[in-house]
Write a structure and sequence with these properties.
The protein has 14 helices and five strands. By secondary structure, the chain is α/β, with parallel strands linked by helices.
């Protein structure tokens, strides 16, 4: 027989075990990721692209090869840039025009410089409209100084000049934080850096020896706070239909000036 004291001890142990088992585990609450951490995760998801085809030359290689030389009397225009350009339905906003879209989502000026010969020079356009820089500021392909972004701009312009291609440099668009969709768009692109790049672009294009025109989207789309107007973008970065309509009108006017041989200040 088990001694009475031992039986009491056994029941005490059983009771403790039951109490422990009855307790519900406290659910662990995942700590929200910071904007920097989300950017790093996004960059990691792009590792295969950066390692195997950094400039994404494969994206338009076949389309470029299939493209016939420009038709005499028609002005071929290339729109060159990132997601803002890629998502621009040129056939809808510029009906009947020989405008070619060579935008790739997420790209920086470093990537665009590497594919400039294939996707611009070899297409023999009269004019190239370049919209870039916002993803450099966000660090999509890693940290880069404003000075190095400017160097990429200047190098693309110099290459275009060597091949008699007129360059229209678009201002970097403002950003906003007015909607939940905007997420980290605003934090990743400091307004003061956008202004700094735009000042440089305007000054660079203002020098006649550089042969570039400045297309000022910024002034037409910024609000009194210095942010992108809320009605022009749902996610704080990419223009919606209203924003694209403004850009299309300004781009058309700038292209006409460039073809006529007049530089936009």
């Amino acid at each position: 027989m088990v001694p009475k004291a031992a039986r009491g001890l056994v029941w005490l142990v059983v009771l403790v075990i039951c109490c422990i088992c009855a307790q519900k585990p406290t659910p662990s609450v995942a700590k929200p990721l910071t904007g920097h951490e989300r950017m790093e995760l996004w960059r990691q998801s792009r590792a295969s692209v950066y390692l195997n085809d950094y400039a994404e030359l494969s994206r338009y290689r076949d389309a470029d090869a299939a493209l016939k030389p420009p038709v005499s009397g028609k002005n071929r225009i290339v729109f060159y840039g990132d997601s803002m350009t890629e998502g621009w339905k040129l056939d809808e906003y510029f009906r009947g025009k020989s405008y070619i879209n060579r935008g790739i989502s997420g790209q920086t000026t470093s990537q665009m410089l590497l594919r400039f010969r294939q996707d611009v020079i070899d297409l023999q356009p009269k004019v190239v409209v370049i919209l870039a820089g916002t993803n450099d500021l966000a660090g999509n392909t890693g940290p880069i100084s404003v000075k190095d972004i400017e160097a990429n701009y200047a190098t693309m312009a110099e290459l275009a000049r060597l091949h008699n291609i007129k360059v229209i440099y678009s201002s970097v668009l403002p950003v906003h934080e007015y909607t939940e969709e905007a997420g980290d768009m605003f934090a990743q692109r400091p307004p003061e850096k956008i202004l700094e790049l735009n000042r440089w672009l305007k000054n660079y294009c203002g020098n006649p020896s550089n042969g570039c025109s400045y297309l000022d989207y910024f002034t037409a789309m910024v609000d009194e706070k210095g942010h992108l107007r809320k009605d022009l973008s749902n996610d704080g970065l990419h223009p919606n239909e209203a924003g694209t309509a403004i850009m299309s009108s300004l781009a058309e006017a700038s292209i006409e000036k460039a073809i006529a041989g007049r530089q936009s200040p």
